[in-house]
Structures are given as C-alpha cells and as structure tokens.
Design a protein that fits this description.
This protein is mainly alpha-helical. Helix content is 64%, strand content 0%.
C-alpha cells in the first residue's frame, strides 16, 4: 500500500470510528480503534471502484447488520454518507 492509500485508509477508518455506526461508544464506553477496520477497508475499496458515498454507507450498514447482528439507524447511515462525501470531495482523494 502506497503512502496515499495509507492516508486514505486512515481517513476512512477515522470516519467509521467517529460515526460509530452501532454506538459502541455510547455512554463513554471505550472500544478498540480497530473495531471498524474491516468495514473501513471495504468502504475504501468500494469508493475506489466508483461507488457513491450513499451506496457505500448503505452497503457497510447492511454488512454490519448481517455480520454483527445489530441494527444500524438511518441517522447513522446518513452521517456516514455525509462524511464519506466530504472526504471524497477533497483534492487529496482525487487521483
């Protein structure tokens, strides 16, 4: 993985941690920083393949619901969509 990809991965990972799709940090509970790494890696791949932030957020939520067995609220999916869209609009995200 080159430096640009590492920076992109770090940014997508941070978005997932900040969004905290299933509220792991609710009530001040600390959770491992690697908790969303699988979803962040998938999201980065999907974005690189041209999927829209809304498609990526919906897919990530569906994977979490299926794999973790917990619901992801529409509000969290919207937050993830907005954060991914903002990231994708930045010049450093462009090729």
């Amino acid at each position: 993985m080159n430096l640009r990809d590492k920076e992109r991965r770090r940014a997508v990972r941070r978005i997932f941690l900040d969004t905290d799709l299933v509220d792991l940090g609710f009530g001040g509970v600390v959770f491992p920083e690697y908790e969303y790494d699988t979803q962040a890696d998938l999201a980065m791949s999907w974005l690189a393949k041209g999927q829209s932030p809304s498609e990526v957020a919906a897919r990530a939520a569906a994977f979490i619901e299926r794999d973790w067995g917990v619901p992801v609220s529409d509000r969290k999916v919207q937050q993830l969509t907005q954060a991914l869209a903002l990231l994708r609009s930045k010049p450093e995200w462009q090729n």
